[in-house]
Amino acid sequence: MAAPAPSKGRLFCAKVMANEPVASEINRIVLEAPELAASLRAGQFVNVAVEGEARQLTRIPLSFTDTDERAGTIELIYALIGPGTRQLSRVGEGSVLSVLGPLGNGWSIPEAAKRALLVSGGTGTVPIFAAALALAKSSTIADVVVGARTKDLLWGLAALKEKVGGEVIVATDDGSAGERGFASEPALTLLSKHPYDLVLVCGPEPLMKVVSARSVELGIDCEVSLERTMACGFGACSTCAVRTVHGMKGACMDGPVFDAKEVVFP
Ligand SMILES: Cc1cc2nc3c(=O)[nH]c(=O)nc-3n(C[C@H](O)[C@H](O)[C@H](O)COP(=O)(O)OP(=O)(O)OC[C@H]3O[C@@H](n4cnc5c(N)ncnc54)[C@H](O)[C@@H]3O)c2cc1C
């Protein structure tokens, strides 16, 4: 399965239409940038610049959940992790941000897939959400497993349940919502239950490693999105190197989506 060709992106001025909390220390920002909204594919990302001292040299790579071509907007969901994302959370409605995109390759969304399994952990739910919407458009039944540390970090479940044709299963590490434990457990159970022809995973590397290994064993096409720490986002700095069976690649330009068979997980 070949992922789509990656993009180096262009700079856009994006007007902030909303910037609000959706869960504990997790915000949703809606940006108006019609040309960008029309050109993003599920699984690609953008690099957002914030002003001030928080991130003077590098932009913040963020995936998107959804685009609204009629309104010309894109929706990003971001965790408040460090100085850059905290600064982003303080940006008010009506402000204008510099956004570089679309970046990366994005998921392969084969039209012929009948049933897909999507598995996410933490902020990996953002590109998985976009994949779920894209698969819903191509009438693929998708079961989605969403993992989070605790229920306060969950968002978007009602929209997911409304949009996807399959099950939405939640797993929390502490059992405060859904099944107790890691998202890999329900994912492996589903893999043994249904004849999937596509598996997409984004989240912590142990989750991607175990789900992709089982999928490959079963002969199912599987892609993982590797959201490695990266500086430039367009192939100039090599900070996001990924070990693959074909040598070292860059998560920003060769990914972030990789065929699971290619990736050598640590
Ligand atoms: C392609 C891509 C897509 C992403 N999409 C999203 C998204 O949709 N939503 C979201 O919330 N986050 C996403 N991230 C992660 C997000 O970019 C980081 O959380 C953000 O850059 C942190 O910036 P900061 O200045 O707030 O904190 P920093 O000071 O940069 O980082 C704070 C701490 O988090 C660690 N850290 C930063 N980035 C990562 C990372 N990628 N993996 C592991 N540890 C990291 C740092 O090492 C440091 O310890 C994505 C990352 C990539 C590469």
- Biggest sheet details: 7 strands, antiparallel
Gap between N and C termini:
23 Å
Q: Strand tally, please?
A: 16
Name of the CATH class of the largest domain: Alpha Beta
Total domain modules: 2
Low-confidence stretches: none
Distinct helical segment count: 6
Indicate the CATH architecture of the largest domain.
Answer: 3-Layer(aba) Sandwich
Would you kindly provide a written description of the structure presented here, covering whatever features stand out?
This protein has 266 residues and is an alpha/beta fold. It folds into 2 domains: 10-103, Translation factors (Elongation Factor Tu (Ef-tu), domain 3); 115-259, Rossmann fold (3-Layer(aba) Sandwich), CATH 3.40.50.80. The protein is 21% helix and 33% strand. It contains 6 helices and 16 strands. It has helices spanning 34-39, 83-89, 125-137, 157-163, 184-193, 205-217; strands at residues 10-23, 26-32, 45-48, 60-63, 66-68, 73-79, 96-103, 115-121, 141-148, 168-172, 179-180, 198-202, 222-225, 241-244, 247-250, 257-259. The strands form 3 sheets. The chain has a 7-stranded antiparallel sheet with strand order 4-3-7-1-2-6-5. A 7-stranded mixed sheet has the order 11-10-9-8-12-13-16, sandwiched between helices. Helix 5 (184-193) runs parallel beside helix 6. The longest helix has 13 residues, at 125-137. The structure holds flavin-adenine dinucleotide (FAD). Residues 45, 55, 60-63, 77-79, 81-85, 123, 126, 227-230, 256 line the site of flavin-adenine dinucleotide.
